[in-house]
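Session log. Operator J.P. requested a structure for one protein chain; no other inputs attached. Running the standard single-chain path with C-alpha cell output.
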Amino acid sequence: AFDGDADRLAVSENGRIVPNNKVYYAIAKFMSEKGLLKQNTVVGTTLTNGGVVRALSGVGVSLLRSDVGDTNVFNLMAANALNFGGEESGHYLLTDFATSSDALINALFVAAIVCRRGSLAEYSKECTDVPYVQQSIALCDSNELLTTKTALNDVATQVRKLYPECRVVLRKSGTENKLRVYVEGCEAEEAYKQIAATFAK
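Structure written below.
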C-alpha cells in the first residue's frame, strides 16, 4: 500500500503487516547479497532502531545516520556516494532507479525479493527491534524554553547519565507545537518518564 503521494510503502504478508524496519533491512540485505550495495553501507536516521543496526552488522552492512526526513537521508547518501537509504516511516531511497522515495519502484523491488527469497518475514527474521518508546509531548509557554538545541542536548545528556544503556533523541516538531521523543534501550520506559516529567506543564 502507498500513502497519498506514493512516496511511502507499507507491506502486508499473509494478512499481517511487515514492520518497516524489516522491509528496510530486507532491501539492504538483498542488495548486499547481490553485490548491488555500494560500499556495503546504507543510510538511516537518528530514529533507526538499534536492532536494525545489529542485524545489518550481522550481514556485513554498515549504517550511517542522518537527521530525520527523506531529504536528509538523500543528502547523506549523495555525500557518501551510496545507493540505498530510508527511514522507519516507509521512505526507501533506491537511487539507482530514482532520486527520491518512489513507493511504486520500492514495491517492485520488494516483490523481486519475495520472488527470489520467499517469505519477507522469514528473510528478515533476524531483524528484531531493541525496546523503545516513541512519544510526543505538547509544548506550552512554560516548557517551550526548554526546546532550544542547547537545552534539549542538556536534557538528553542528563537522561543518558541516569540511563547509560539508553539512546535518547529529542527534537522539536516542524509541524506541531510538540516535542518528539525517542528513547531506545531496556530502560526506555523509565527514561521516557524522566523526560516527560522535565517537560510537564
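Operator note: The chain has a mean pLDDT of 94.
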